[in-house]
Amino acid sequence: MLDQLQALQAQALAELGAVTNRAELDAWDSQYIGKKGQLTQMLRNMGSLSKEERPIFGKAANDVKTVLEAAYAEREKLISDQELAHDLEAGAVDITLPGRPKPTGGLHPSTRTLRRLFEIWGDMGFQVYQSRDIETDDMNFTLLNIPPHHPARDMQDTFYTTTPNVILRTHTSAGQIRAMRELGGNGTKPLRVVLPGMCYRFEQITVRSEVQFHQMEGIAIGKNIHMSDLKGTITEFARRFFSPTAKLRFRSSYFPFTEPSMEIDVECFLCGGEGCRVCKHSGWLEIAGSGMIHPVVLRNGGYDPNEWSGFAFGMGPERMTLLKHGISDIRYFWANDQRFLEQF
Ligand code: PHE
Fold first, then answer.
1. Staple partner for 169: which of 84, 110, 135, 209, CB 3.0–4.6 Å?
2. Which of 230, 255, 263 to mutate to test the pocket of ligand 1 (most atoms within 8 A of CB)?
3. Ligand 1 atom at shortest distance from the alpha carbon of 311
């Protein structure tokens, strides 16, 4: 029996020396020292030995067990180290590889235009006044000299709400009276503000017009403000926004809240004034409505029109963005097509 033990130990150690991975190690474990292993088996068979032989064999078997367990532990450590080294190598980060850029969001082209507008008008002394999208009929129409049933209301098909006299503003001019009343000190202070915001019109969507769009209103009120101030201010603005050589055209027009009124065109950049699809072959594109603030409106805002005068304009940032970037369709702005938005 003792010889058998020695032979078992020798064989087990030899085989362990050839073990190179965890599966082989596990197999070795169950073959020799596991619950059903050969050594355990031999210990179980001790009963067949004589009283005197038993303790001798028991001690020898335990010695073998100790030797094998120690050898197992050593091999196990070796294999663990190899596994760790292998994992580290396989998972190693190659710091020389180029990084994967994270896609970042961008600003909407209209936001960019609005920010540029704030910059330019800010430099020219205009403060930003945020008026509201949901307006009263009074602010949007009546106080701007557009009484009920005035035909000018037809020019601006309105989104009505279920609350009587509460509508979505059809133009940023709706904020004119609010700005005058809030900042004008009861008609005692000059005013220079721009009012940006969304406007809403219930009308046919085309390449040139959407049911919602931005406008930016501008108002200047003071003493001795004339039409020439309006023209000079807008011309200076266009030079800064479009180009130092931008050409402007002022066309007489009609708005109930300004008198006289003009529409402002800029030479079409797409065709350089030659005439193209976007400018309807006229060579000019309208960017703003404007005029000298009507005395009735000044009075509604708290100013005495005998003492004060002012000009107002309303420009369309989307129109201007179209022009600046040669975009041929206004519907791209709110279609949320990333291919369009990512270009800016
Ligand atoms: N509110 C006008 C429009 O939406 C534009 C405008 C603003 C005209 C201010 C004159 C003065 O068409």
1. 135
2. 255
3. 11
User: Residues 89-105: pLDDT tens digits?
Assistant: 888 888 888 988 888 88
State the distance from the centre of ligand 1 to the C-alpha of 112, rounded, in angstroms: 22
Contact indicator for 284, 266 with CB cutoff of 8 Å: yes
pLDDT, tens only, 303-342: 999 999 999 999 999 988 888 888 888 899 999 998 999 8
Single-letter code of the amino acid located at 267: E
Does 145 sit in the ligand 1 pocket, CB within 6 Å?
no
Atom of ligand 1 nearest to the CA of 172: 1
Tokens in use for 50? 């004589």
In 158-197, which positions are buried (b, 16+ CB within 10 angstroms) versus exposed (e)? beeeeeeeebbbbbbbbbbbbbbbebbeebeeebbbbbbb
Q: CA triplet 164, 168, 174: central angle to 5 degrees?
A: 100
Lowest mean pLDDT among 202-206, 297-301, 303-307: 202-206
Its CATH architecture, for the domain 110-341, is 2-Layer Sandwich (3.30)
- C-alpha separations of 258 from 166, 255, 262, 316 in Å: 24, 6, 9, 18
Q: For ligand 1, is residue 312 a contact (CB within 6 Å)?
A: yes
Q: Which helix (H) or strand (E) holds 220?
A: strand 212-222
Residue 269 has pLDDT above 80, yes or no: no
Q: Domain-by-domain residue ranges, the chain? A: 2-90, 110-341
